[in-house]
Amino acid sequence: MSRNVLQGRRILLCVAGSIAAYKAVSLLRALVRDGAEVSVVVTPSAARFVAPLTFETLSGRPVRQHLFADAEPMPHLRATEEADLVLVAPATANCLAKCALGLADDLLSTLLLAARCPIVMAPAMDGDMWDHPALVSHVWTLRDRGVVVLEPEEGSLASGLVGKGRLPAEHVVLEAVMACLARRRDWAGQRVLVSAGPTREPLDAVRFITNASSGKMGYAVAEAAAQRGAEVVLVSGPTALASPPNVTSVSVLTAEEMWHALDARFSWATVLVMTAAVGDFRPRHPCSGKIKKHEWNGAPLDLERTPDILESLSRKRTHQVLVGFAAESGDLLANGRKKLRQKDLDLVVINRVTGAQSACGSDTNEAIFLPRHGQAIQVERLPKRLLADRLLDTVREYGVMPLPSPARPQNKEIRRIQ
Ligand code: C5P
């Protein structure tokens, strides 16, 4: 995304009391370098880690610290009135909890309650705190409310332990800020059909063949499209994820079920994003009961191909923009090009599925976007939610965005996917 987005934008950088507060100094410099007008708020504990004078010098503005002690009356209102975006980095467990609960007992929590502009929070804390059920539920509450809460990074923590809790990398925080500032309802009028997750192909009543897909990429695409104004139907195989807000979710198990669910809604859609890791093979003769150990003769492992959903929908396309995903190893670009042609797609997202950088299950992803018309675009490793926004930007740029027609989905069933 172009850094011009930051030019002249007013950002309120709030620094809470984590050891990662020192990284906010570099973040402030990057924001100022790219033309943002940054005001800083520090909590009393953050001021113990980094002297407010550091932020004052680099921002060229007085730093706000207290609700009452500073000369200015009602600093929480002044601070937020002047901001296009509030960035909390680092956001501590305390700060996330207070914001989720709507508490207002100091300057930071009060201004978060007063803010009417977008809020981005970049957490930093110990891994056990991030994983605590109380925090998990606070993060869900905040996200549900539209606050962008970034995922902390894995790595060595100040406690000496290794885990998930590091402040997200500077480029990730900047990308989230820019995405938020640039976000328009630029997908309003589009009807987006997204497939996600793995499929399950039964061997018998209790056993099945599946794959390592977590569904995170597809859910991120569905969430991003809905936030940008599209009507979204998410057809998902079994995952552990909750349906994103304002998305109609349909649960399926097998490739066959996914095919029917997508086929039934395809004429409604203006864009299909096929992120699902559809099983390519299924047992030809699954057993209806449970196969007993001593009865095993290998027969259920006689496999047949599943329908290629994307290829079959591509043959039926009338106006839809088609986006496919390609999980590849070896020559990623050559394999991706082949898929683009074979399935007659508008864009293919190529993911590497081998080695430490594998896309499967991870919260982050690195990809190549290969549009039908145009050059391949290498996208750096980003959280999947931010990658989803990049994908939507690229589809707008390279896919011919169709005009919405009056068709409505026939099955508007809203189910929560567990
Ligand atoms: O051919 P390959 O499986 O690599 O293609 C990947 C793309 O095709 C993905 O977008 C995936 O969702 C889709 N696909 C499908 N039906 C299958 C297998 C893959 O629609 N049976």
Architecture per CATH nomenclature, i.e. the level-2 architecture of the largest domain: 3-Layer(aba) Sandwich
Name the ligand types.
cytidine-5'-monophosphate
Low-confidence stretches: 406-418
Reported by name, the CATH topology of the largest domain is: Rossmann fold
Query: Can you identify the CATH superfamily of the largest domain?
Result: CoaB-like
Overall number of domains: 2
| The CATH C-level class name of the largest domain | Alpha Beta
Strand content: 15-25%
> How many strands, which pairing sense, and closed or not: the largest β-sheet?
8 strands, mixed
How would you name the oligomeric state of the polypeptide chains in this document?
single chain
Kindly, what is the distance between the CA atoms of the first and last residues, rounded to a whole number of angstroms?
34 Å
State the shape: elongated
Q: Strand arrangement, largest sheet?
A: 12-11-8-13-16-17-18-19
Number of strand segments = 19
Proportion in helices: 25-40%
Rounded Rg: 24 Å
Mean of residue pLDDT values? 89
Figure out the total of helices.
Answer: 14
Describe the structure.
This protein is α/β, with parallel strands linked by helices and 418 residues long. It has two domains: 3-182, Flavin prenyltransferase-like (Rossmann fold); 191-398, CoaB-like (Rossmann fold), CATH 3.40.50.10300. Helices cover 33% and strands 22% of the residues. The protein has 14 helices and 19 strands. The strands form five sheets. It has an eight-stranded mixed β-sheet, with helices on both faces. A five-stranded parallel β-sheet has the order 2-1-3-4-5, sandwiched between helices. Helix 1 runs parallel beside helix 3 (52-59), helix 4 packs across helix 6 and helix 10 packs across helix 14 (384-398). The longest helix is centred in the C-terminal third of the chain and has 15 residues, at 384-398. The radius of gyration is 24 Å and the shape is elongated.
